[in-house]
């Protein structure tokens, strides 16, 4: 399986014209003049380093009074979007939300990845039914708007397909057992609704609990950053279908990560469903014993464990939103870590998700101050959301209810993260 290379500039423009036409026709053009004046006045009080290193829920946290960076001063970064052709409606919605709230000012590129070739209909965003976006009927509305580059990539089969060395009979028995126990994500049947959201990974349209779902978790854990289209980049922002960004982001989170030596960031943290990872922590402890040189002395073990590392408390960062440094995943420590977990077969014999794998690695191999909570970025992935409050809510013009936020609910792990800094 090969890689679909980036479109040449004209096709790249055409593809994103279709994706963004709803933004242009329904919002930007109708408000462009007032938006311009509002942006001028509001930017005078916004800093590129808007989120400070204190993680306490202070209303004064986000903004520090310097204008944002220009479009010419950007990080080496991209959006990464793993999706399928059938996800097109959710893909358009997510891109519209991101472009509206952030990327229309910064023009960062988009990389789309799929385990099957993207159809021409997907690339041109031609939808059937009531959601038609026909390029032939699209007026030339963006002649004066700079559009970001877009690339479509095919995932190599060796990065996606269940490895031949996996004992399929054992893996099938595990899936059937989890099905009989009605363990979410664990078996052979899909599930729906809020139940799957107890887990830290999300579905991308895959049948939850299925082999393709496990393929996705394994790919996101150890292979996405090796894809040819991502090799030129250091930082990425993961985006998924049908997510919402509630607030204007008036600074560059990529540059914030770069300038403050951050390697991983999140908006929601929660507990994993324990029966899906019964032997994961034992494997982690085995790795730590064999490779103590990779463990950061000032690590975040207290986020992962209530007893100094004996047991895993299931806390992790919800990886459907993550802005992170791919050089961290490409480094020796994480490479050894993933290879060690891969050899255990837990992605298939159990249902190890990329969320706990990423979270455990970031907590063990980085300092706490290198992990960042973007408190001021409002975000929703059904059915959980993070909504800023106080001054952050006002400055970001957030379209969410601050009282409807997962931050301090019973299954949230945010308090454990904040305790690292107290």
From TrEMBL:
InterPro entries: Glyco_trans_15, Nucleotide-diphossugar_trans
Active site: 322 (nucleophile)
Superkingdom of origin organism: Eukaryota
Family: Belongs to the glycosyltransferase 15 family.
GO cellular component: Golgi apparatus; membrane
GO biological process terms held by the UniProt record: cell wall mannoprotein biosynthetic process; protein N-linked glycosylation
Annotated keywords: Transferase
GO molecular function ontology, one term from the record: alpha-1,2-mannosyltransferase activity
Name used for this protein in its record: Glycosyltransferase family 15 protein
Matches recorded under Pfam families: Glyco_transf_15
């Amino acid at each position: 399986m090969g890689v679909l290379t980036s479109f040449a500039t004209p096709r790249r423009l055409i593809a994103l014209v279709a994706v963004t036409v709803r933004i242009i026709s329904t919002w930007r053009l109708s408000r462009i003049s007032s938006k311009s004046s509002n942006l001028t006045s509001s930017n005078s009080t916004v800093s590129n380093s808007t989120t400070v290193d204190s993680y306490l829920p202070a209303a004064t946290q986000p903004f520090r009074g310097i204008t944002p960076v220009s479009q010419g001063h950007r990080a080496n970064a991209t959006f990464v979007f793993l999706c399928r052709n059938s996800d097109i409606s959710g893909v358009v919605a997510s891109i519209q939300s991101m472009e509206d709230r952030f990327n229309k000012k910064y023009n960062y590129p988009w990389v789309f990845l799929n385990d099957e070739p993207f159809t021409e209909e997907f690339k041109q965003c031609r939808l059937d039914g009531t959601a038609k976006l026909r390029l032939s009927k699209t007026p030339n509305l963006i002649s004066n708007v700079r559009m970001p580059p877009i690339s479509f990539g095919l995932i190599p089969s060796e990065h996606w397909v269940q490895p031949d060395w996996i004992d399929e009979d054992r893996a099938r028995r595990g899936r059937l057992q989890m099905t009989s126990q009605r363990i979410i994500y664990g078996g052979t049947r899909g599930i729906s609704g809020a139940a799957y959201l107890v887990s830290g990974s999300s579905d991308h349209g895959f049948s939850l609990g299925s082999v393709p779902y496990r393929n996705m978790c394994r790919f996101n854990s150890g292979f996405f950053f090796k894809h040819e289209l991502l090799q030129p980049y250091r930082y990425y922002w993961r985006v998924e279908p049908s997510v919402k960004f509630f607030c204007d982001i008036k600074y560059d989170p990529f540059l914030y990560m770069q300038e403050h030596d951050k390697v991983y960031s999140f908006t929601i943290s929660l507990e994993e469903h324990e029966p899906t990872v019964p032997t994961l922590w034992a494997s982690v402890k085995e790795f730590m014993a064999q490779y103590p040189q990779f463990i950061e002395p000032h690590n975040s073990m207290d986020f992962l464990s209530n007893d100094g590392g004996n047991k895993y408390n299931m806390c992790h960062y919800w990886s459907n939103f993550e802005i992170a440094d791919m050089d961290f995943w490409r480094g020796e420590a994480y490479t050894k870590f993933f290879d060690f977990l891969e050899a255990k077969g837990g992605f298939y014999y159990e249902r190890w998700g990329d969320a706990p794998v990423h979270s455990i690695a970031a907590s063990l191999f980085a300092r706490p101050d290198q992990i960042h909570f973007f408190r001021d970025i409002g975000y929703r992935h059904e059915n959980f959301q993070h909504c800023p409050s106080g001054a952050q809510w006002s400055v970001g013009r957030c379209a969410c209810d601050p009282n409807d936020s997962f931050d301090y609910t019973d299954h949230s792990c945010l308090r454990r993260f904040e305790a690292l800094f107290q």
